[in-house]
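If you are new to this repository, start here. Below is one unmodified record pulled from the training split, so you can see the exact layout before writing a loader.
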Amino acid sequence: LIDQNHVLIKKYNESALSRDQVFIYKIPILLSSNFINYEMPSNSLIYTPFRSLGLICDEVPPAITKLGDDLFFTISCGHVFQVYRSDKLQVVLISKPAPGEISHLCTSNHDTFVSVENAVYRYRRAHLMNQVLECPGKVKGLLCVGEALLCYDEQNNLFVSQIKTLTCMRLTTF
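And here is the target side for that same chain:
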C-alpha cells in the first residue's frame, strides 16, 4: 500500500533467469474517487469496457431478431421498448409509449408485438399500428413462430394468428 488511494504491485518476469526484471504497477484502489480518472492499460485483459442490459430493462425477457447479418435485442422498459444492436449494444430505436405497462414482447422482422394486460398490440418499427387481439384473461405468453403469432392467457386459451393478415386462425382451450 503506497498511500490511501493506491496499491503497489510487483510482478517478476517468469521467463527471466534472474530477478532483475521486475515490473511495478501503481494501481488505484477501486473504491477511491481517483479510479474514475485512471487510464486503463490498453493491453489489459482484466480491465475491458462493457455494457449491460440488466440495468436498463425490467423483468420481461428480451426478444432476439436477426435482420440480414445484424442481430438485435428488443427489451422492455415499462411502457416502452428499446431495440439494441447486439455487436456494440447501441440503441437503434425507442418506441412510442404503450397504453399500459408491457408484460410480454416478441418480434418478427420489423414488427414487434407487445402485450398489455389482456390486449396484444402491433408496432411497426417504433410506431403503434393497431391492436391485434383481445384475450378474455390476462396474457401469460407471447411467441412468434414463423408466420404465426401464438398467445395464451391465464384462462388457458391459446390464440394462433397469422402475422401478415392478423386474423385469428385458431382458438384452443387447454
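Two things worth knowing about this chain: The first strand starts at residue 6 and ends at 12. The CA atoms of residues 53 and 89 lie 8 Å apart.
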